[in-house]
Amino acid sequence: MTEGFKIIGISTRTTNQNNQSQTDLGKLWGQFFADGIIDRIPNKISGDILAIYTDYVSDFKEAYTTLIGVPVSTLEEVPEGLIGREFLPDNFEKFVAKGEMPQAVVDVWVDVWNRDAELKRKYSYDFELYGAKSQNGPESEVDIYIAVK
Q1: Cα torsion at 59, 129, 108, 65 (round to 10°)?
Q2: Contact residues for 81 (Cβ-Cβ < 8 A; gap 6+)
Q3: Cβ(9)–Cβ(53) below 8 Å
Q4: CA angle, 15 as apex, 9 and 34 as ends, to 5°?
Q5: CA separation for the pair 46, 70 (Å, rounded)
Q6: Contact assessment for residue 75 and residue 44, using Cβ atoms and an 8 Å cutoff
Q7: pLDDT by residue (tens digit) across 76-97?
Q8: CA-to-CA distance for 39 and 126, rounded, in angstroms?
Q9: What's the rounded Cα separation, in Å, for the pair 7 and 67?
Q10: Which of 46, 12, 5 is nearest to 29 (CA)?
Q11: Which of 10, 65, 79, 99 could staple 104 via S-S, CB 3.0–4.6 A?
């Protein structure tokens, strides 16, 4: 069980079909850093960056929404052009991507997709936590949380 949280950031709607998510998510990450989104977010509770996958049409083969942002204490002040969302507590299986980013994260997701039925995924929301260890080159680590029933 993982506690719920609030996040402010930016989002896009995408799909894994025809590698569309690679293009869309690359643009979203690029925008997040190029536009200094993290500096525009008020009421941050940490410097961690979250990438959240939610609003699934059905499963990982269909459309979903990706949000990139920072956990915040309140959604009362969401800057123009950004979005705020609250995610309720849920049950997750934790995976750790280790190695060069973003390839290490992609490798974990491929494993998750290959084990989709076995994991009994819930498709409420899944997320990646980019904390202090996420920027260490070949020694990087990113925690990935997959919602399960």
Answers
A1: 30
A2: 10
A3: no
A4: 35
A5: 7
A6: no
A7: 999 999 999 999 999 999 999 9
A8: 24
A9: 9
A10: 12
A11: 99
